[in-house]
Amino acid sequence: MPIARAAKRAVVRLGAVTLAGALLAACGGSSDDSSSDSAGGKVTITVDLFGSFGYKEAGLYAEYEKLHPGVTIKQTDTEDEADYWKSLQTRLAGGAGLADVQGIEVGRIASVTQQQADRFEDLKKYGADSLKDQFAPAKWAAATGRGGEVLGLGTDVGPEAMCYRTDLFEQAGLPTDREELAKKWATWDGYLDLGEQYKAKAPAKSAWLDSVGSLYSIMIGQEKERYYDASGKLIWEQNPALRSAWDHAVQAADAGLSAKLDQWSPQWNQAFSAGSFATIPCPAWMLGYIKGQAGEAGKGKWDVAELPGGAGNWGGSYLAVPKAAKHKKEAYELIKWLTAPEQQTKLFQKQGNFPSATGAIEKVADAKDPFFSNAPIGKIFGEAAKEAPVQVLGVHDQNIAQQITNALSEVERKGTAPEKAWSNAKKGVENTIG
């Protein structure tokens, strides 16, 4: 979830609290399958992630180390998933500098299964077949290679909702009840109309939403087919659902409803506590991130309501083991444990990352979150997870999404004409994927 992150983990990882901004080189890189780092049989398992998966923050690494004396877990991370992926591709090509465990964002998993299966361990080798019934079918299938290889184990999924600041709503004279708001913004047009009302009476230096890129990302997450159709054909330019998401984002920019913040930037991080925006489209993994940025002072000021326009999914991730990993078996045992229902349940309760393990989904159905005004997050995100479409995943999903959100940023921050920005997105996609 992690942080995505959409998107920048968003995509973005998909994430929960701010992590180091620069990519740290992961340890490992040897093809040696030795299980010890020293004569004492001690093992250091390296984990390289993006955004925030929340394992360290939820205490799961410490728990695993306690259960497995001699094991030490060292994590490196990158906030921006696009930077992480670029670095990972370089290291995969060279076969060095790879961690024992690498995170894979859901928008990249098709690239792994269709183009890079030879660079990752088939986890069936370690008994992963026995875990199939533990995961939602779509989550398991997405990480299955063309030859039946199991190339990753699912972490979270990203059912969507809307997070909002009740104190800012009150100051602008808007209702704060989550059920009433869900009715008022049942459609995206209704959401933007309410944004116009907010803008008219908003507190100083406070916008309706953080960025139009997040609006686009959450809307496109409601669609089954986005960039590719089920046959693998690129359809993004002709997809009316994608164009609708684009048009609504442009409308929000033209109406001045956005705080014009780049997601995952320092300014965006600061805005959570500064009240720079009143709403933010939030997949489940965003809850932990908001808590981390808003701090204890934000407790009770935030709430969660159902999303306009129906259920959707934004983000979700996998844990994979590169063939160049130093400790493959130990890495598999770790990711098997981290993605088990018990640990996914703990992660949701502490960080908000919604589980992909079916047993965990049942366990969190009644969960509420005091930080978010005791919102019934188990119910809200659980229903969204059940109703969200099973999305068609393509090799270049993430690359295309990045080009579109870059173009929307031009509209939002530079005043670029929408059709010019669309043309720029098209050129960017062509240059990126050929």
TrEMBL record:
Give the species this sequence originates from.
Answer: Streptomyces bikiniensis
Q: Which UniProt keywords apply?
A: Signal
| Pfam families with a match to the protein in the record | SBP_bac_8
Q: Which PROSITE patterns match?
A: PROKAR_LIPOPROTEIN
Renumbered to this chain, the signal peptide range is 1-25
Q: What is this protein called?
A: ABC transporter substrate-binding protein
- Does the keyword field hold Signal? yes
Read off the InterPro entries from this record. Bact_solute-bd_prot1 (IPR050490), SBP (IPR006059)
Q: Where is this region: Disordered?
A: 414-434
Q: Would I find Signal among this entry's keywords?
A: yes
